[in-house]
Amino acid sequence: MQHTTKYQLNLIEPSDEFSPDPLNDNMNKVEELFAGQLKFEAGSYTGNGRTSEDIRLEFGIRPFMVIVYHSTDIEYGGFPWYRDARYGRTSKLGSSSWDGPELTWTDNTVSWHVSNNYVIKCFLNEADVVYNYFAIGI
User: Fold this and answer.
1) Pair (77, 55) in one structural domain
2) pLDDT tens, position by position, 9-22
3) DSSP letter string over 6-49?
4) What average pLDDT does the segment 119-131 reach?
5) Do the Cβ atoms of 19 and 10 come closer than 8 Å?
6) Are 121 and 71 in contact (CB under 8 A)?
C-alpha cells in the first residue's frame, strides 16, 4: 500500500481489496495530528459591580477567541472577542458608536475595564451576576 508523503496516510488503490483497516488507520493518524492543536476552556465568574478594577480571565491555554455571556440576560454578552482586538462588543442594545470595553490581551489572559460611564451590565460585571465564558486557543 502506498502512503502520502507528508503524513504517511494510507492511499487506497483501485486494485486493493476493501478493508476498513486502512481507513481506520488514517482516522487515527488524523486525530493524532490535530490532538493538542485546538483546545477549549470554559468557566464562570461572579460580577462584583465595581468599576474601579479590571475584570480578568486567566486560561490554561493561549486563547484566540473568547466569548463571555450573562447567565440570565441574553441581551448582554455572547459576542466573540478575538485576540489582539482593542474593543469587545458586549450588548445588542445601545449606541452603535460605542465600541465596548477596552480589552487587554496577554499570552494566557484577557482583561477589560470600565473606561467611561456606561451601564455596568455592558461591562459584564453586574454585582452578584454569574457570567459564563469559553475560549478557543492553543
Assistant:
1) yes
2) 777 666 767 666 77
3) TT--EE--TTSPP-HHHHHHHHHHHHHHHTTTSEEEEEEEE---
4) 82
5) no
6) no
Domain enclosing residue 14, as ranges? 2-34
Is pTM, for the whole model, over 0.70? no
Residues 48 and 26 in one domain: no
Q: How many domains does the chain divide into?
A: 2
85 and 30 within one domain: no
How high does pLDDT run on average in the chain? 80
Do both 8 and 52 map to the same domain? no
- For residue 27 the three cell numbers come to 482516522
A 10 A CB-CB count for 47 gives 19
Same domain, 63 and 94: yes
Q: Mean pLDDT check: name the lowest of 62-66, 87-91, 93-97.
A: 93-97
